Amino acid sequence: MPELPKFDEPLHVGRPNIGDSGELRKHIDAALDRRWLTDGPLVREFEERIAELAGTAHCVATCNATVGIQLAARACGIEPGDEVIVPAFTWVATAHALSWIGAVPVFCDVDEETANLFSGAVEKVLSPATRGILGVHVFGRPCPIDPLTELAGRHGVPLLFDAAHGLGSTYQGRPVGGFGEAEVFSFHATKFVNSFEGGAVVTDNAELAARVRAMRNFGIGADGTVESPGTNAKMNEAAAAMGLTSLGVMDELIEANRFNHERYAEGLAGIRGVRVRTQEPGERANHQYLIVEIDAAAAGVHRDHVHQVLMRQNVLSRRYFYPGCHQLEPYRARPERHAPQSLANSEALAERVLALPTGTAVGAAEIAGVCEIIRLTVEAASAGSDRLRGG
Ligand code: T4K
Predict the structure, then answer these.
(1) Residue 136 Cβ contacting ligand 1 at under 6 Å
(2) Is residue 5 part of a domain?
(3) Runs of H (alpha helix) within the chain
(4) Does 90 sit in the ligand 1 pocket, CB within 6 Å?
């Protein structure tokens, strides 16, 4: 067995893209000169830019997407005790956001190919107690939005999208952001467009946007009086400065991710049981997550073993999203109706997926090294070699 390529510096999955740091400093200096540090002109500009990209009439920036989902859900009338259908295969924030406002996430399965919830799976868990559906555009690949919209409309429940991964992707040629009652983006440091921490609720519904805007600021409405039990979910000016800087290079970031995706696809081609997840054919994708699936039966080695080998070689791969939310501690003891014991596709995916480093922090040489580690690991397994196992 040849030596595995070893990286001296860790390769992170969520290494932030920085963009033009000179521009960032200029924005921050301007904010300091104005002595306007939060929820000011930079946030307004950021909101305008995001609304333009999403093709929506309104954008309300928030301190992160988790709180953004809470505001959007509350603004849609989701109350404590209300049941909201969510996919089990997502980052736990989707479910936690609902739990934190007292709503009850009801987990449904996803489609194995797209990793997204779909109307057939939603229908299986839909009940008279359902008060909302929260889809997730997992890894930036849009949900099947039209059938979900039809289903939600037929049952008279609001449809929301957790679009934390979705900025810049399209569904039937239209940008993610303008679907359902509202969609919520994340600009966490690990997202391809980041604002250190941040999120945004986008919608075409003026009243909904006004409710979210008020709730974001202690429930204070446009006339300056408190109209609802709000919170403090405001974005600050430094975050907006980073967001604007990031947006300034968004197209280059997508291109870098697309380039990396091709390099991974080439580098991993022909390795038994290993495949790179793809995006919706014919649509624009942001490619911000590079996800491989390792089918243990075909590869002769489990995803977790490949993960361990990569970690030992300083490639800090991540098991997004393992385990499914329905199997996480706060949810798995819930009644079967809310957290089914078995959601076959979500569980199969959770056993196979591995996120690998992408973005501007890696180039062709690093990707070739990562692919080589995976290739040698799978080959060693199929040759029956134990050399890479264990310690
Ligand atoms: N819905 C979905 C579907 C989501 O995926 C998320 C968040 C949300 C909702 C909620 O959005 P926010 O409320 O966060 O806006 C990360 C992120 O914290 C989280 O934002 C993201 N999804 C999730 C998929 O991944 P961790 O715990 O894996 O991240 P962390 O901080 O350990 O970072 C990952 C890697 O990135 C590490 O190897 C270190 C590296 N890193 C990280 C940071 C923060 C850096 O190199 N520099 C950095 O500044 O959750």
Answers:
(1) yes
(2) no
(3) 21-34, 41-54, 65-75, 93-100, 119-125, 145-155, 206-216, 237-248, 250-268, 296-299, 303-312, 329-332, 344-352, 364-382
(4) yes
